[in-house]
Each structure stands twice: as C-alpha cells, then as structure tokens.
Amino acid sequence: MQRTSCLFVLIALLLSMTAYSQNNRFSGKVISASNAPIPGATVQIKNSKTAVATGEDGSFVLSSAESQVTLVISSIGFVRQEVTARAGVAVQVQLQEDAKSLQDVVVVGYGSVRKTDLTGSVSSLKSAQLQEIPAVSIEQAIQGRMAGVQVQATSGQPGAGISIRVRGVSSFAGGNEPLYVIDGLPQFNDDVRGANGLSTINPSDIESIEVLKDAAAAAIYGSRAANGVVMVTTKSGKVGQPRVTFESSLGFQTIRKKLDLMNADEYISFVKSFYDNMGQPYPADIQNFKKTVDTDWQDEVFRTALLSNSSLNVSGGTERNRYFVSAGYTNQQGIVRGSGYKRASVRLNLDSKVSDRFSIVTRLMASRAIQNGFSPSLGDNTRNFGKSGIGSILRSVPTVPVKNADGTYTDTSPFNLNGIDVENPVAVADEVLDQNTTTRVQGGLDLKFVIMKGLTNTTRVSADFYHIRRDLYFPRILPRLGNNIGSAELGLYDKTAVLAEDFLEYRYDFAPDTYIEAIAGVSLQRDRLNTVDLAASGFGTDDLKNYNFTAANTVGKPVTEITESTLISGFARVRFNLRDKYLIGASIRRDGASVFAENNKYGVFPSVSAAWRINQEDFLKDAQWLSNLKLRLSWGQAGNPAIRPYQSLFLGRTVNTGQGAGTGLAVGLGTTFPNPNLKWETTAQTNIGLDAGFVNERFRVTFDYYIKKTKDLLALVQMPPSAGIGAGIGTGPSQIIDNVGEVENKGWELSLGANIVNTSDWSVNVEVNFSANKNKVTKTKDNKDIQASVGGNDASGTNSVIRVGEPLSSFLGPLFLGLDKNGVPMHLNVNGDKDPNGNDIIGAPDWVIIGSPYPDLYYGINPTIRWKRLSLSSIWAGVSGAKINNGGLFELTSPIVQGTYNKLKVANELYPKPSQAAGNYHLRSSRFMEDASFFRMRNIRLDYNFNMGQSKTIKNLNAYVSGQNLLTWTKYSGFDPEVNTFNGNDRRQGIDLASYPAAKTVTVGFGITF
Questions:
Q1: What share of the chain is helix, strand, coil (3-state, %, to 5)?
Q2: N or C: which end of the chain has fewer CB within 10 A?
C-alpha cells in the first residue's frame, strides 16, 4: 500500500512538472537600428511550428515545453536573425535594415518580386502609408503620392467617379482608364461619372497598391494594359494569436470656397447699368423693384457635413491556417444638403495550407453602397447648366426668398427679363430623388499545388457581381426638370465577370545569387451586362416617386439590353538573375477578344527588359556609401480594347413608325455600319530608368524617361453621305467607328526619398515626386480635325478638338485681345472678315488652339516627422500648365440681361459697360480658359501612440487628428481647380460645368488593437 501511494505521488509530480514545462514563457521586443519598434515581425521557435507576429510596439510572447530555445526573427526589409532565449527572461532583438538586398516585395502580374529584382517601372504604396489619410475610396489614398500617376475627380460629390491617368492619355474613344486587378481579378472602372465602383472596397482592407507603369511591367495583361495596371492586394492574416483591431473616425466637412455672386442690390444695379448703356428705359418690374430679401443661395444649400468611418478586423492563425475577417461602415454626408454616400462592407480572407504540397487562398468581399446625388449637369439640352443642382444655385436671382408665404417654393427667375432655365435649388436639394444603390459581391479561390521542388501550379477561379439601381424622380413642383407633371427614370444594371486561369510557376537556383523564374498559363474571362432603362412622366402625386410607373400618364418604351464579351488568353514570362547583377526579363501574351472583328480577333503583346545592378560590380561592391545603383531598360506593347461590344457587327433595331396600312408598324432598321477590320489600339512603350540608394538607403533616387506611341486609335469618322447609316454611338449620319489615329506621350518621372534624421527619439523622412508628360496627336484620318462635341444635343459649351500636332482634346476657340473703348471684347480676326458696319466677324475660321486640359508638370511632397510617440505626416500635391474651360464663368458673366440670371461680381470687371454689343462678342474664348495650376495640402495628420505598458489586453492604442484640403493655392476662380465634369472616356476634357464643389475636412479618430 505504501509503495502504491508513493507511485501515485511520483506520477502526479511528473505530470505537474510536464504541465509546467509546457507553459514556459518567452517574451521580448523587436526593434530597428534606430530603436523604433518593428510591428508585424515573425518570431518563430527554431525547428518548430510555434510562431507569433510582433505587436504595434514590437513586443511578442510565446510558449514552449523547453526552458531554452533559439528564436528566429524575420521581417521584410530587415536581416533575418537568430537569438538564444531562456524562459522568463525577456530579450530585446535589434534587426538591421537589409538595405543591401532591398527585400521589399512588390506585387506584379501573376506573382511578386523583390524590389531589387525589378526590371520594369512600378510604384508601390503599403498599408501603413495608405492609412495616413482617412480615404473613403482607395484611389483617394494615392493622390499626389506616385510619380506618373494622376488622380482626378469628376466632382466633390461623395462617391463620385474618379479617374486615374498613368503617364498621360492616349485614346480618343477607346478609354484612358487603367486596368484594375483586385486580388488577381482584372476589371475596369466602368462608371467613372456616376457611382464609383472602386469605392465599394474598404480602404482599411488594403495591404498594398502597386501601379505597373511601363510595358515591361504591364504587358503580361496584354490587350488591356495600355493605360497601365493598378494592382490591389487585400490583407491576409498573420501567424499568431488572434488580433482584434477597431478603428473609428469622425470628420466635419465644409465647402472649400464659395463663389462671389452678386447680392440683390448688385444684381439690380447691373441690370440697370445694361439698360443705361443701351439708352433704354428700365422694365417695369425692375423700375418698381423694392428689396425685401437678399437670399444667398449658397448658404441655403451648402452645409457643414459629417463624415464617419468605422472598421473592425480580426486576424491571426497558425502556420497551416491564417485568417483576416473585417467589417466596415462609412457614412459621408455631402456638403450639399440631401446628398451623401453610405457604404457597408464585409470581407473574409483565408489562407489554408492543407498539406506540404497543397494550399488554398480564399478571398471574399460583399458590400452595399448608397449614393444620394444632387442632379449633376449631363451636358445635354435636358440637363444643362441651369437644369442641374449646382447650376441652379449659381443662377438663382437673390431677390426672392426660398419659399412663398403659402409654403410653396419660389420662382428663382422672378423678372420678365430672366429666362426659364433654372430651378429653385432648395427644391432640387430637398425634393428630388437622385440615388445610386450598388450591391457588390466579389471573391475567388486560388488552388496551389507544388508538383515538385521549384514547380507550382495555380488554378484561379474568381467572380465579380454588382447590381446598380439608378433612381431618379423630378417632382411636379419643379417646373423645368419635373415639367409640373413629374418625371421619373429607373435604371437597373447587373454585371457579372467570371475568370478562370491556370498557370505554372517554376524557379531553379543555379547558385545562391543566380536563378531563373518562369511562368506560363491560360486565362478565360467572360463579362455579361444586363441593362434595363425605364422613363415615365405625368404623375398624379409625388408620393410614390419612381416606384410606381403604372401611375404615370406617359410611359416610355422600356430599353433593355444584354451585352457579353469574352477574352481568352495565353501568357508567359521568364526572368533571369545572374549573380544578383544582371537581370533579364521577357513576357508575351496572346489575347483573343470577342469585341473585335473577325479579321482581328487575336493580338500578340510582347515585352523585354533588362537591368544592371552596377553597385554589385567589384569596382563598387565595397563602397559603403552606395547601397543601390541599378540601370533599367525596357520595351513592350500593350493594347486597349475598351469599346462597347458588337461595334464591328451590322446590328438591327426595331422602331415604331406610321408607314404602311396602319400606325405603330415595327420596322427593322440597320443602325450601325460594320467594320470587319476593327482592332485594338496598341501602345508601344520604351522606358529607361535609374534606381539609386545611398548611405544604407537613407537617401533614395528613382528616375524614369519614357516614350509611349499609340497607334490604331478608335474614333467615330464620317462616311460618305451616300452610305446613309449611323453608328449608333453618337449622333449624325454616315458615321463608323474605325482605327484612325496615333498619339505620342513623352515624359519623365523623378522620385526622391530621404531619412534625414533617424534616432530613438526623432525621425524625419521626406518623399518627393515629380512627373512631366508631353502629349501630342501625331495622326488622324486624312489628318483632319476630330471634334469633341457629342452632337446636336451637346449643351456643355465644349470647344475641344483633336488636331494633329496638339494635345488630345485641346481647347479651340477665338483668342481674346481685350476690350475696345466701348467695352466690347476684341478677338483675333484671322481672316479679316467684316460685316457691313465694319465689325469683326469671328467664326470657326478664326479659332485657334487656346490651351490644353492636361498639366505639364505634377508633383507631390510627403514629409513625416516623429518625436517619441508623436508623429506628424502630410501630403502636398500640385500641378501646373493645365487649363480649365470654366463654363460657370462664361455662363455667369454675360454682359446682357435678357434671358439671363444672377451674375458673378467679376462680371463688373469683365464688362464694365454691359451692353448688347458686348454680348454679341461674349464668346467662349481664351478669356474663359483659366489656369488650373494649384498647390494643395491634401492631407495633414497628427498621431499619438499611447504607451500601454505591460497591458495584456490592449496591444496598441493611437489617436489622431487630420485635415484634408485645408490649404490650396490657385488662380482658378471656380470652386476647385481639381475637377473635370466629363471625366473618364469622354472626349470633352477639362470642363467645369457646374461641378459639385470640393470640401475641406477636419477628422478626429482612433485605433485600438487587442
């Protein structure tokens, strides 16, 4: 019995010792050479699967059965290090920057590559940089931060479209938007004027954004890469205990600048001055006018708007399974009452290593966004300057109140001399339904199988579905937009994109510093767009808005359409690295696209590139002051297929007509003329670049010079009148879409970086980028001008032209020479034509090039200062050399008063003697092409990272205050110089036609990690 008791005691003691040994605790902190914490570093017990990631303060904790272990610490950009650790004794590990090998990984097409091994031109932003600005959509976060990449908004409206231009524009009608690749799924930003599809993605979910700029980097995407490629990679989980991060911010937005409009007294004075100069009596309603109110319509409609943004993510995992789960909600009021943008999104990213050979990568995102607009101008006769939200604010006469005594809205064109092309802006803001609702689901699977050492096969299946519902209702109380009877529109747009790819990746290491990498695969992508457009008018009540079309007196014929397109491809790429000195790369892609004609279904897009790491040569290898010196050279071709499907086919259309025995007879009509030779626009680009780093990468320089030549540009061209057909994508008879022109872009890019101070308490870093681009049309069909106007329904006031020797969409018009002694504008009379009274006849033969909408230079400056736990970062950006066709200035300074409305105060300076004679020469001349140059504080942010001590619950806590667009220096007289009403693929560029104003914002926020 005694032996048995002793045995039990011994067993219990051994078990307790075993249990204790399994809980040996190892802790410490990982810091850089400057003693700054390194978050996200991997700490692993050598020869085991136990690993964790360091927290925001660089700390880590893990357990082991051993009392002494070897820890392996690694982090991108630092030299891997091993240290011995004993249980219960905290260690501090200082990692040295791996400047020699520049281990930063850059995402490229179908894979990633070390920055040091790049042979192409790529700009990159990582998650930490993206979080410096509280952006609502991802493209806002890169404005002013990448050389050669220009981001431009169509307006300041929340959720409005944004266009990105990579190294200039090169297309008439084929599109200038880059290709976006989100977690491997290629897609275009289809709707850049309305609901911005990219804004459905939560910026907090983004791990990195890379822009592939030259052909060597982008040609792997072949026929879609002529305008560059934007690679978006979302976050993955990291090995370690679950980490919960919550971020929230609240912003206050106000209008950046109000326009200086006339008040009631100034308006009446201007009207009287006109009649005085004309020697005519005042109209009775002007003569008898007595001021009772002085309404500032801008104050009535613009407001201080709130912007709230919250996100929650949970991440973690083991070596086998890693996860990242997030949810986000954004609510952005617009600075115009009634407008705004709301978005809710969820994401699930899983990385599973099923076995040593097989792994699965899963990406899934769902979002829903609602955008409430403010009736933007469409530039046509139905929705022109006055019949738009912002236009109505500017045109409304200040002599009337918002509402009449009986509660009805006033007529804001109260005098008989006024026109009728204006609505009450408060009524438009409060009563109009103008809403886009976007529901989007996007996801994919990557199945990776290691066939043998160095050889991996990836099968990728992805899909992207979005549904947009477009609701529009102008109520009966609006006499112009609603026609006093109510006018409704409903649009339903469903798009599904499905991608299936399979590719092999192979790497063979000849030596530690010599290897070859190759990739080859096939791809199939199919897009389908279903469209339903409905219109109706004549409603007995406004209560149901556009939700009950059967209540309308007049219902238009429904327009339904299904368009499908297919792209089938084969691609390959090879990279060779010899002794970490000589880098050679080549790629080729063959695309077959259904949108092109039978004679040109397939295109081949090759690229070659090379780089020489000069600092690895013997004569520089020991130079301590030089950490990197690389010369790059590349050439390649890429395409642009961004035209609507079926443009190469002869299509029919059914219409109702009164021909034959009765009315309403359906007749099939051919409305397009087929072009069996239609093909891609092809861009060939040559790039030479230099990368240099000094003093262990404390100072960095990147320079690129490029030449882009685009041929076979797509455009509408005139056919002989005898053809008697229309192309169906514009107006005017006898047109056909054809490959007719060539465009050249030449430019340079310079990026500078410096870590000026880097100590334990202080760091001062500066990043600067400059870009210059020269755009020139080198060929059109028969070298004839191509007008940018969309036809007889164009009410935008554009006077742009595509002309050989000039930039795309250059402004064409009369050259303003000043005022004569009677205050009448004078213009350059090229041909000297005179009327019988000896006055100049200024017409189309006198028009000359008066400006370009594209800047000569754009630049960004991004300094960051850190003192202990306090940091100050800012983003400054600017452009110079561009012009804006200021439609608002032209509309609101007319020297006549009949048929016009309120004026800008500057009208008194432009026309000190308003008269009919002056009005006859009020032309869209160089006088209204204003300098669009600006320099702006895009963002400034002050952060404080709290010391959480030994807290086991809260790993990190930081708070910040930031401001966006707080300071802007510009000569532009409109709301904002960074605007383009007809952005995207429209040929009418550089026009400000009553665009939604930009806001300046102050934001406070915090982030906490558990």
A1: 10, 50, 40
A2: N
Which has more pLDDT, 750 or 564?
Answer: 750
Paired tokens of 206:
């983004």
pTM: 0.85
Domain that holds residue 206: 101-246
Is 504 a domain residue? no
CA-to-CA distance for 627 and 636, rounded, in angstroms? 29
Position 728 pLDDT exceeds 70: no
CATH code, domain with 54 = 2.60.40.1120
Q: β-strand 848-851 against 825-827: which pairing, if any?
A: unpaired
Could you say which of 214, 231, 246 is where a domain stops?
246
| Number of domains the chain is built from | 2
- Tell me, yes or no, whether 53 and 72 share the same domain: yes
Q: Give the three-class secondary structure for 217.
A: helix
DSSP 671-708: -S---TT---EEEEEEEEEEEEEETTTTEEEEEEEEEE
CB 106 within 8 A of CB 210: yes
Angstrom distance (rounded) from CA 169 to CA 788: 15
Q: Which two tokens stand for residue 946?
A: 């709290």
**88 lies in the same domain as 203:** no
Quote the CA–CA distance of 224 and 569 in Å, as a whole number.
11
Token code pair at residue 922: 């009020």
Taking a C-beta distance cutoff of 8 angstroms, is the pair 858, 768 a contact?
no
Residue-wise pLDDT for 872-901, tens only, equals 999 999 999 999 999 999 999 999 999 999
* CA–CA–CA angle 760, 764, 770 (5° rounding): 150
Last residue of a domain, one of 53, 75, 98: 98
Residues 412, 301, 334: CA angle, nearest 5 degrees = 145
Do 81 and 105 lie in a common domain? no
Q: In the predicted model, what is the mean pLDDT of residues 389-401?
A: 94
CB 288 within 8 A of CB 268: no
Token pair belonging to 897: 């008063």
Strand-pair category, 848-851 with 810-813: antiparallel
CA 862, CA 764: separation in Å to the nearest integer?
Answer: 11
